[in-house]
Amino acid sequence: xxxIIFLILRRMRQPLLTLLAVYxxxxxxxxxxxxxDADGGTWHMSIFHAFYFVSYMATTIGFGEIPYAFTDAQxxxxxxSLYAAVVAWIYAFGTILALVQDKTFQExxxxxxxARRIRSMREPFHLVCGYGETGSTLVQTLTRRGQHAVxxxxxxxxxxxxxxxDLREFVPALHGDAAITRHLQEAGLQHPSCVGVVxxxxxxxxxxxxxxxxxxxxxxxxxxxxxxxxxxEANMASFGTxxxxxxxxxxxxxxxxxxxAPCLYLLQRWLTGREGSALCEPxxxxxxxxxxxxxxxxxxxxxxARLKGEGIEVVVxxxxxxxxxxxxxxxVVGRGTEADTLLEARIEEAAGLVAGTDDDxxxxxxVMTARELNNGLFVVVRQNQHDNRDIIAAVDADMVMxxxxxxxxxxxxxxxxxxxxxxxxxxxxxDEDWACELASRVSALVREExxxxxxxxxxxxxxxxxxxxxxxxxxxxxxxxxxxxxxxERPLKAIVLLVRRRNDRLLLPEPGLPLKSGDCLLICGNQxxxxxxxxxxxxxxxxDYIKTGEDRPQxxxxxxxxxx
Amino acid sequence: xxxEKVVFGFFIVLALTLNFGFFVGEIExxxxxxxxxxxxxxxxxxxxxxxxFGDRSQMGALLLATSxxxxxxxxxxxxxxxxxxxxxxxxxxxxxMASIVSLSxxxxxxxxxxxxxxxxxxxxxxR
Lengths: 564, 127
Fold this sequence. Notes:
Chain A is an alpha/beta fold. Helix content of chain A is 50%, strand content 15%. Chain A has four domains: 2-101, Helix Hairpins (Orthogonal Bundle), CATH 1.10.287; 120-245, Rossmann fold (3-Layer(aba) Sandwich), CATH 3.40.50.720; 248-420, NAD(P)-binding Rossmann-like Domain (Rossmann fold, 3-Layer(aba) Sandwich), CATH 3.40.50.720; 451-548, Alpha-Beta Plaits. Chain B has one domain (3-125). The N and C termini of chain B lie close together (10 Å).
């Protein structure tokens, strides 16, 4: 606010001085010029009358010549000062209007309003830096879950689009450079309700700056960063950035899981899928013959490393090997969009193809050409632009790698259900049969859409009745939780995936496990199951019914009656 | 030499000198206090106030505050004068004149502080 007042005062100095001077000279002149009163005697206007007259003359309202009609000398003076005053007023108004339309002034006002809004935030929020494809997907999912977000972006078009998007929560947006500390502070980095900072700009160095600023100014805040190069990743990790998301490495790791344990990969996609998306089919990437990787950039390199780890022969097709670096073996120079380069890479005998260049049109062309030459290929295609979603879907690839979606999905899970990551890393130690069995159990819970996943702490806030019951020495088993509180013989459509009890992690706990207050549960299931479970643990009557199967009287009168 | 500083200093000192000019003389004698002098004091003080707009320093804020005090006192004096002469029609009686002059005396005190602050600032600058 101070800024704005000072800006106005400074800009208004000149016009106000002009106005003052014109008024002073006009008033002085009027008092000095002799006039004639009604009797024809000489009369001098007093300062008070002169000021009154000039006040209405300058704004050209014009009430006439008072208290006596003017002499010609007076009229001449009034005519001169009239024009001077009007010009001075136009100058003053012009300056004010120019100031209001001034870019700096408007930005000062917008920044001010934004800072005030942030200060008044009372609920926990995440600070999202960069509102590109990834940022907007993330903010959409966060707000759909009722979580709050604040956005900074350097591009004004992107921050103003927030008002047009139909987001469920209000999202304050600042147009500014997130690499500037002041902007981060204004966006609430040091606000007590700020729980996380997500750096998603397309500039690695800006992300790095955001991460280090956040860690220095608010060490307890969770920092999640996007990074596209290993150098920057190592740098970010060195000062304790909580999570670093590299879309290429993440996808390559997914591919490796798909090779080793197709069921686990399927499970992972179902559980981390966006709410409302369709259940996907399992994929079985073949490993019997060699793979062709088109494009040896960051993505191609990550894929090649993983494929080699699986013991699969790789042939790389790259148009500019001098700038990307030479792969250790099997290089064909070319873009891969023409049949002869693909033939040179022995496309007829290949098992899989990765179209991983940074150009969507080329990737599609590679896939179409390759399919003509070998129809049974397992195809992985990289999607660079969000708008190309439909044409990429039309080629019906076995796996699609879309960096923005991968980052958004991963960060969404990190922010909403971090236990799911623990679950996934524990599940990697289990064998394939375990994963397949779990996948078939999960598919029985839902129809066409992916199951919902919730993280749930059994504490006084969320499970008051249960905590009270456990304190009184009662025992509540996991199977009790999964009973339907409307009809206890029927189980609810939900699976408890993980229980966290202090430092212990119980993967797929037995139904006979007694629950304790303070446990954290990771549950997957449908919405109805979650609502009903909420009843069982927060409503004492329902809890008693679940335990005993009796609908006990609650009221004093009924208790008396049943006792007799 | 900064011309802006010259103009600034000129108006602040002029505000004080004119104010003093109006203030001296017998307090209740209208012949010793001319209306044009009061007019000039008010105009110069207004200009000095506007010149002090938009300075963010502590010194600037204090200078602006003293000027606002002076303006308030002077306008009160002008209103008393106008009221006595034009509205109440009692003319410049000793009571009215004394209150006008004492109000301008208060404004002069504020102007003195203003000039002292200006001198302090100049001394601190040491250039």
